Amino acid sequence: MPTPSRWAVILSLVVAPLAGQGAGPQPAIAVLNLRFDGEHANVLEPGDTAVAAAATSALRSTLQGSDRLAVVDSARVAAAVAAREADGNPCDNACGLAVARELGAAWVARGRITKTSNLVWVFVAELLEVGGSKAVLRDSYELKGDATRMAPAGARVFAQRIERALDTATAAVGR
């Protein structure tokens, strides 16, 4: 007769596979760095690009906290984007989809933060489905006030909307 510790091992070998049945791996999402756009700003300041970096960080960290998807490592995404931008062209939707495909992601999130004035910024982002090469979600928020606080807040809202959009998409597919 097995000892109590052997029963624990036997039980873990039987129960662990049962607990994971039907769950499958989480779909991966590639999050591209949000672009800073200051082309139409009335005044550009040294810290403006940091606003886009902070928003990207907030988007990525919010999605990493999700139990519904896996976020592709940001260094791998940045390297794949840099390789495609070597020709001098910024990474557009086709580039984002190619990066996501290369990294095995089912989704790609990309966007930009546009400064119009010190008090008004615009957050524009979209979620693209790699398999269908189409936009599943497009968001645009006017951010008023302190951009260092508002841009990350807008990115967190977008991340939450991504989770809801993925819930709807997977329910429609019957997953």
Describe the 3D structure:
This protein has 175 residues and is an alpha/beta fold. The chain contains 5 helices and 6 strands. Strands 1, 2, 3, 4, 5 and 6 form a 6-stranded mixed β-sheet that branches. The radius of gyration is 20 Å and the shape is globular. The relative contact order is 0.17. Mean pLDDT is 86; it is low at 4-22.
- What is the H-and-E element order? HEEHEHHEEEH
Helix fraction, binned, reads 40-55%
Proportion of strand residues: 15-25%
Overall SS class: alpha/beta
Q: Which helices and strands occur, and which strands form pairs?
A:
Layout: H1 4-20, E1 28-31, E2 35-37, H2 48-64, E3 70-71, H3 74-84, H4 93-102, E4 107-115, E5 120-129, E6 134-144, H5 147-173
Parallel strand pairs: 1-3, 1-4, 2-4
Antiparallel strand pairs: 4-5, 5-6
Helix pairs in contact: 2-5, 3-4
What attributes characterize this protein structure?
175 residues, six-stranded mixed β-sheet, single chain, globular, 5 helices, 6 strands, 47% helix, alpha/beta, Rossmann fold
Question: What's the quick description here?
Answer:
The protein is α/β, with parallel strands linked by helices. It contains five helices and six strands. It is globular, with a radius of gyration of 20 Å.
